[in-house]
Amino acid sequence: MIGNVIKYEQDNIDTDVIIPGTYLKIHDYNELATHAMEGIDPDFPSKVKEGDFIVAGKNFGCGSSREHAPIALSTCGIKAVIATSFARIFYRNSVDGAFLLPIEIDDITYQKISNSDQLEVNIEKNEIKNLTKNEVYSMKPFSEIIAKIIAAGGLFKYKK
Amino acid sequence: MTETLFEKIWNSHVVVERENEPSLIYIDRHLVHEVTSPQAFDGLRLNNRKVRRPDLTIATIDHNVPTTDRSLPMIDETSSTQIKTLEQNCKDFGIKLFGINDPNQGIVHVIGPQLGITLPGSTIVCGDSHTSTQGAFGAFAFGIGTSEVEHTLATQTLWLEKPKTFEILANGQRKNSFAVTSKDIILSIIKKIGTDGGTGHVLEYRGNAISDLSMEQRMTICNMSIEAGSRAGLIAPDSKTFDYINNREYTPENYDNLVDTWKENLMSDPNSKFDKSFTINVEKIEPQVSWGTNPAMVSDVTGTIPTPEDYGKNNEIQVESAKKALAYMNLEPETPIVEIPIDRVFIGSCTNARLEDLKDAAEIVKGKKVNSNVNAMVVPGSQMVKHEAEKLGLDKIFKDANFEWRESGCSMCLGMNPDILKPGERCASTSNRNFEGRQGSGGRTHLVSPVMAAASAISGHFVDVREWC
Ligand code: SF4
Fold first, then answer.
1. How many A from CA of B61 to the centre of ligand 1?
2. How far is CA B144 from CA B125, B173, B195, B232, B453, in A?
3. Does one domain contain both B240 and B347?
4. What mean pLDDT do residues B240-262 have?
């Protein structure tokens, strides 16, 4: 996976800024996507490109259990959110519905990655290559369980 | 081997368990609401699946219902469609629905307990993070996403990684137990452990300061467990718990026998090991007011707005986030909390809109008037709460003081229906999240207890409610 970084230097980016409550009535994914990140960055849907990554601080996706949050991001084209930590429900929602990959990195890696950097993410090797800066970082490996759900393509395809 | 309460509930619900794999957990109760369920039902239809246990599934409409006169047609078409969709889905799949005009309609986490659906020792899920509320009954109750809603509908089970356990020990006696509420206890806890302090854990609240609380106060505590990032919150059931559930509409027939087994089993064994522990003495806790944009950004009512540097303690990201929060909230460091004027007051939500909350707030409001600069409303958590409050004449107390008295629902807790803040408006709110835009784009939320909200409505700014009682 290769894509460009949209970086938010913030902790606790919550589900109400990812997709404000008033849009939860919307059933159509494409319409939902036009409001993604509206709470902190109204230009997000126009600047994001297919395959981009969001990079952010800790506790990304805290708050509600709305699956609309990963759906809105993924419909915009986001393939992975790379953060120092995630809120549990957002993490599971992202993986369960196979919407996007929640990738955990350490603080140092977080600081090294800048807005607009081009990254290549390799989950088999647990490796992130920064093609812009010519650096290589490691990501926190997925737990066995999560890796299996990801490999299966979501919770429903995950069979025992 | 000793076991914690959580481990006991978990172990009694495991269907499949293998090493380094998620466990398949049986789900006793599934609550459904209109916002997180439509895609799940679509999924069932697409794959030709049925709801496996419609008898264990219960639905209500709460997030986007209007709280004004419900005999009038709904203005918001998308909300109306979402509501009709749930009605149709419940009909098609044979699920009991407490619809918009049902006397049992209400916020999903309020109606479970008041109907006797929430039982100790059970596993309860709902596509909503504040399902943790029901942990107050000694149930493992947690929020799930829509894919998991679909999985539960189809199989009545879920694949879960076993969470770790986190003991929150609360000791001591509150100084003024009317003015210092369980909301102040939980805000104080989140202030200390942070919004991600509980990530991956189930919190078990223990200690005399917890057992002293009524069931409704305990629900406020467990409700906000999720604001500390945890999977769920738990309190071991006791006689208060068993009395609360007795004689409700859905209380099981063999209730006394159930109580006997619960009494024997549902507690953490003496000396059982928790993965983490945190102790708090409630004696020094004051009424709390949040000043920022997450529920850990909280001050004592006698305190001031912190400087970003004091708040962040050398952590640059924290300092920055406090700066950003203060800019959003339009607040200056070192302003005394009691000098902050407010425009709106919202007494409602699954955190603080049960009968006791309304009774306590009414006690403060009685015979007084809402400040002329403030617009205040009370939104009962359920129609049943509303009805009981009206029997006690609380509606009259609120209305006489110029509070609006509304129909039940989530309302201004998340601003999905027309009850929202205008940009720049500042609100004292009894809800649980003060995120940017949560109560309406540009709206500024301060989280407080019902008595603090009531007293602030009268004064037009925050006040130390302890001086009133
Ligand atoms: S009252 Fe608020 S927090 Fe509770 S379920 Fe409704 S929207 Fe969620």
1. 12
2. 7, 35, 19, 11, 31
3. no
4. 97
